[in-house]
Request: fold
Amino acid sequence: QVQLIESGGGLVQAGDSLRLSCAASGRTFSDVAMGWFRQAPGKEREFVVAISRSGGNTAYADSVKGRFTISRDTAKNTVYLQMNKLKPEDTAVYYCAVRNLRGITYGDRLYREKSEYDYWGQGTTVTVSS
Reply:
């Protein structure tokens, strides 16, 4: 079982930066691919960014390219989302997600769909004022 604890959300102004953290327990990041999703009020949960098992491949939604960066610290079993130049449109609850890859010994895939993930954090709220 994997437990995910998210932190780093808050209230900021447009143009500011935030760094979200997602710490995992129960399984090391060597066995998983990860992603971040977000859900704005009244909207469906949408893909933000994904990182592969090795960390060598990433994919970003068009809306955040050039502003957001995903990274991993395998020693701390933590994934980060650095968010720069925040816009009011970025206001949402942000969720980290884990896809279990234990037993899969090859490939370095990226996963962009909600249904492809096995575990989710509780969410951390980001509010960007204009």
In short: The mean pLDDT is 93. DSSP finds no helices and eleven strands in the chain. The CA atoms of residues 65 and 124 lie 21 Å apart. The radius of gyration is 14 Å.
